[in-house]
Design a protein that fits this description.
- The chain is an alpha+beta fold.
- It has a single domain, classed as 2-Layer Sandwich (Conserved Hypothetical Protein Mth637, Chain: A), CATH 3.30.1200.
- It has 2 helices and 5 strands, in the order E-E-E-H-E-E-H.
- It has a 5-stranded mixed sheet, with helices on one face.
Amino acid sequence: MTVIQVKVLPRSSRNMIVGNEEGVIKIKLTAPPFEGKANKALKEFLAKRLGLPKKNIEIISGTKSRLKSIRIEGLNIKEIDDLLK
């Protein structure tokens, strides 16, 4: 199990990783930040980029915030960093 910090920028023109600042990965998402749409889009985006099923990705804090802690099962931090570059 690995935990990463993510800052979500909702309502963007496309889904993409825009950088890594002080250990926080910035991710732009097209989904709006209401009714859990941005959280769902984040899980789908990370699952696709990391090659994991969505069930292996869990938002453990920040469900109503742009700054989120994400638990990822099946990869270590180095593998995650390599896949999210």
